[in-house]
Amino acid sequence: xxxxxxxxxxxxxxxxxxxxxxxxxxxxxxxxxxxxxxxxxxxxxxxxxxxxxxxxxxxxxxxxxxxxxxxxxxxxxxxxxxxxxxxxxxxxxxxxxxxxxxxxxxxxxxxxxxxxxxxxxxxxxxxxxxxxxxxxxxxxxxxxxxxxxxxxxxxxxxxxxxxxxxxxxxxxxxxxxxxxxxxxxxxxxxxxxxxxxxxxxxxxxxxxxxxxxxxxxxxxxxxxxxxxxxxxxxxxxxxxxxxxxxxxxxxxxxxxxxxxxxxxxxxxxxxxxxxxxxxxxxxxxxxxxxxxxxxxxxxxxxxxxxxxxxxxxxxxxxxxxxxxxxxxxxxxxxxxxxxxxxxxxxxxxxxxxxxxxxxxxxxxxxxxxxxxxxxxxxxxxxxxxxxxxxxxxxxxxxxxxxxxxxxxxxxxxxxxxxxxxxxxxxxxxxxxxxxxxxxxxxxxxxxxxxxxxxxxxxxxxxxxxxxxxxxxxxxxxxxxxxxxxxxxxxxxxxxxxxxxxxxxxxxxxxxxxxxxxxxxxxxxxxxxxxxxxxxxxxxxxxxxxxxxxxxxxxxxxxxxxxxxxxxxxxxxxxxxxxxxxxxxxxxxxxxxxxxxxxxxxxxxxxxxxxxxxxxxxxxxxxxxxxxxxxxxxxxxxxxxxxxxxxxxxxxxxxxxxxxxxxxxxxxxxxxxxxxxxxxxxxxxxxxxxxxxxxxxxxxxxxxxxxxxxxxxxxxxxxxxxxxxxxxxxxxxxxxxxxxxxxxxxxxxxxxxxxxxxxxxxxxxxxxxxxxxxxxxxxxxxxxxxxxxxxxxxxxxxxxxxxxxxxxxxxxxxxxxxxxxxxxxxxxxxxxxxxxxxxxxxxxxxxxxxxxxxxxx
Length: 856
Ligand SMILES: *[C@@H]1O[C@H](CO)[C@@H](O)[C@H](O)[C@H]1NC(C)=O
Ligand SMILES: *[C@@H]1O[C@H](CO)[C@@H](O)[C@H](O)[C@H]1NC(C)=O
Ligand SMILES: *[C@@H]1O[C@H](CO)[C@@H](O)[C@H](O)[C@H]1NC(C)=O
Ligand SMILES: *[C@@H]1O[C@H](CO)[C@@H](O)[C@H](O)[C@H]1NC(C)=O
Ligand SMILES: *[C@@H]1O[C@H](CO)[C@@H](O)[C@H](O)[C@H]1NC(C)=O
Ligand SMILES: *[C@@H]1O[C@H](CO)[C@@H](O)[C@H](O)[C@H]1NC(C)=O
Ligand SMILES: *[C@@H]1O[C@H](CO)[C@@H](O)[C@H](O)[C@H]1NC(C)=O
Ligand SMILES: *[C@@H]1O[C@H](CO)[C@@H](O)[C@H](O)[C@H]1NC(C)=O
Ligand SMILES: *[C@@H]1O[C@H](CO)[C@@H](O)[C@H](O)[C@H]1NC(C)=O
Ligand SMILES: *[C@@H]1O[C@H](CO)[C@@H](O)[C@H](O)[C@H]1NC(C)=O
Ligand SMILES: *[C@@H]1O[C@H](CO)[C@@H](O)[C@H](O)[C@H]1NC(C)=O
Ligand SMILES: *[C@@H]1O[C@H](CO)[C@@H](O)[C@H](O)[C@H]1NC(C)=O
Fold this sequence. Notes:
The protein is an alpha+beta fold. The longest helix has 21 residues, at 619-639.
């Protein structure tokens, strides 16, 4: 971690606290008193976290420490960012209070860190508790375990902005629930930090003359996104140690718009009305805009959807900074919140007064349960009333805060975890032998940790109209029909004739009759076989009088679990994404297990790379394919309600449609990420040699980082045009992963690039691409990037490729060139064409059902 001035700043602050000195620091928060309490709860001495931040013990702030206990977590989830403060907790069996002496008249940020695990054999699944401060209820009947499980996160951070208290004493009280026997409360870390005045009155959406004065409310941070940009860690925030997340998991529909980054020489100048505490520069130098085609832009809304608690008022803060336009009326758009116009004809340049000037706008909206929906929709759409130069919209950052209700409450219910697949039987990771609990440590693996962010399980990316495409050389495995990896107690109940999955599938998965399938495959005629694997055969078939599909039929003689089959189908049929091969339906009549998929015309990525290549893909095409596949995997990991691990990422599982759009297939072999009781999924090792994550292989430890490893191998396959394993080569060359890493170490990576494309790759693009591919192959999963980061870096490489002078130079092109720039910065050309129009028209009706299923 870079030791930048902020870290220094915090280090200085912390030491001040240790010495219990309230130093008066000028030019920070206009010379007011500063508080910063950063407590590692249960710790006996100070310690620094992975970012170099110092956490001090909490004992002296507890009014009755003897009534509490402290303990170490019994297991460490690999996705924890740091041991401090997560691996130790303070445990409260009865109501307990922390007291802090703070400066009155100032707002304070309160962050509570929870890592649900086992502490002294106490299972955090038993912990239900409330947390109150200064008359406000921050949490009530809170279960960190359930929350973490539902969000598939290992740890939970809850952040609140407490209004100035009249007195200089802040009491933070933990109250175990009385509704449950054995209930207790726990906390791993507490931060209490002074914050400057960054809230003002905000207009109420839907009421022309109403506003709320946000200054007088305590708030909970629900979402904080660096729109169009990357994750920003607390160390890179502008002084408040806030974490900013990537917005892509929350995008709704198939139209992602286009992301861009400001050129290096566009300097971001905060005006006097925007303090740097509002948001760091990193938020303002990246943005998401609509797309290059104005006709298309007029037909869709750039939309984000968030899961929220109903019966609360929300403050929605939009951050803008224009670095592509410089004049008024070049880019004018409407802002909608929950389908109501929050602001018509927004013009960032008109607000800010020029380019490179940050500006933010707040709006308040009340969400009641009239709609029966716990979602907040934010949408942007061009406003053409005054004939702006471009029909487009832009957003740089977005924050959503929940404001306290009339009773001073901020607590919502625990989220409801969706039914999880049964856990494997003999998980090696049960608690240590001393524990006879027989339960497994309560941890979840997750990439997106944060303020209890609800990763939009609702944001199904729709592709609409079925593509007619081919699945060839479908290899090996498919659904774990044997249930070998997770079968546990459930017996395979064969149920002839009747179909059961359709009822529980919520109608998302189409049910085919066996007659239809037989008709479509000419009674399983072998001439239609396009693939054979351990599970049975894949046929090219026809449904609905001519639509080409791929039909996979499980070998009727094999032992299969109907129940697993159904569970799997229900899971898969809910996944819709432009870069995933869609499951159209299934048939389970007569003990048959048949799945019907989209058919992909251009086959597998592998067959276009080598092995008598049908065609030689250009470097640009290859990069586009990698980006598409990365997007599909990113969606599997973060876009669905549960993390889904593919487990068999390889070039034969990346299929290409007739427009060369990459789609990930065979995620039927996948299983959902670890649930709360598991630190990771441990299963029989599956996957393909040459792509296997060494960590997974050694320890049977499956995380989504295993997919990242395999994808790294695919990236080198694409770069070098050679198989992942080639036994005919010399020993050090057999494994592509090892060979590539070796060449990277020696600095000879360029020498192994496929000669066909060598001349096409720009140096910067190559460097970027190689760097991310090498990182994917890190031996230790923790050191591998997330799929989101991989995606971002591939897009970045593409920008270098499209403009040899690098993305910065591209972004410099000003107003009139803005659209050329869009095309060059373009990240999702194909999706614009392939998905957008469909998402908007024919598909809308179908997918609004998916997006908004009743009773969810
Ligand atoms: C954080 O800031 C440092 C220094 O400014 C920079 O090198 C680093 O890349 C940043 N990290 C992220 C994730 O933005
Ligand atoms: C950025 O630099 C280029 C030349 O390097 C210059 O033409 C352009 O005006 C600069 N932009 C700004 C905002 O300074
Ligand atoms: C924009 O999209 C429309 C509809 O998809 C298409 O007809 C038109 O050719 C596109 N325009 C450009 C400039 O690509
Ligand atoms: C929301 O408020 C309404 C009216 O007060 C109430 O009937 C409803 O039960 C509340 N819903 C929830 C989930 O609290
Ligand atoms: C907004 O509109 C969309 C469809 O146009 C609908 O699915 C969604 O439920 C609406 N959202 C709210 C909060 O009313
Ligand atoms: C965009 O959203 C607004 C508000 O929900 C809606 O009225 C409008 O029809 C939407 N436009 C398109 C093209 O979907
Ligand atoms: C565009 O903005 C104008 C001016 O604020 C507003 O009156 C108009 O309704 C907006 N147009 C649309 C289509 O929302
Ligand atoms: C927030 O809580 C305070 C203190 O309980 C209360 O005075 C205020 O009315 C609450 N805000 C709202 C919107 O009810
Ligand atoms: C507490 O939360 C649990 C789990 O979400 C829920 O089942 C229970 O009904 C809640 N209890 C109360 C008193 O709200
Ligand atoms: C976790 O373990 C507890 C105790 O064994 C059990 O009640 C609970 O159902 C398990 N949860 C999951 C998701 O397996
Ligand atoms: C499925 O079961 C069959 C027969 O019981 C066995 O041969 C095969 O190896 C199993 N497949 C998997 C993936 O475990
Ligand atoms: C890719 O698909 C297109 C459209 O279906 C087809 O014309 C082309 O021949 C295919 N190319 C290969 C190499 O299969």
